Amino acid sequence: VIDPSPSPPTFDFKTYMLEKAISVNNALDAAVSLQDPLKIQESMRYSLLAGGKRVRPMLSIAACELFGGHESTAIPSACAVEMIHTMSLMHDDLPCMDNDDLRRGKPTNHKVYGENVAVLAGDAMLALAFHLVATETEGVSSDQVVRVIVELAKAIGAEGLVAGQIVDVCSEGDPNLGLSDLEFIHRSKTAALLEGSVVMGAILGGANEEEVEKLRKYARCIGLLFQVVDDILDVTKSSEELGKTAGKDLVADKTTYPKLIGIEKSKEFADKLNKEAIEQLRGFDSDKAAPLIAMANYIAHRDN
Ligand code: GRG
Prior knowledge:
The protein has 304 residues and is mainly alpha-helical.
């Protein structure tokens, strides 16, 4: 039987997240300086420095540190995954995709800078992410850097983020969307970049192949867990806030885990994924694994 929260009681997850977020925010601030052409740089900085939990950068850093690597080695990769996450949100918010007006509590990028600028700022951020990893990663071999770049490219392209987004967009409102389709969307749209973030950190920390695969499995579990919990919160939050009937109406058009397998089975699935994720970290130094264990528990038990 796996203890559901075996992270050492002395480990302070909140402080750890805060410290890593500060390091990442400083590095992001330095990476996108205010220079000509100002319009594009301003638009990039607007979304990049608009908050966000910095889950992906933290995962890269924690995975690197698990194998004895330094935070500074993982910082360019940590910034890169956050840049790509941010540009994917900017593009997702565009009128041709989700058409959203608000993101992270602020008007979306295209609402402030216009659609043309938001597209180009996202494109620039995608390019900058790879540039940063290739030119700023220090303290590891160039072979490791190449492997990190391959991992990142794989996570976001037509077999990763883009795959999830296109299937999601094309299946909107499809009443026949099944469990395997839903899982494909979540694995590609959400889990792929989380997986990339963790594996990139592990490679930079010096993990061997077997260790990389363990961490990959951990990341896949927390990636899917993230979405299953999101789906559960969708139901519980909307029924809490609006009363049971209105809540149901709100989520009626979206295919979710609770809709396909019910709320109880969804919770059981989430629990299974949480345990499976933590199981992958058995055998590692427990102090060094604590942030990753705490992250899995945080994703499983968050309430918003
Ligand atoms: C990457 C080349 C390239 C294109 C992008 C538009 C698109 C293709 C993909 C959209 C993917 C998308 C919107 C995924 C959702 C990911 C997700 C779980 C977002 C919420 O993440 P949090 O909770 O957000 O970490 P914060 O705001 O805290 O960063």
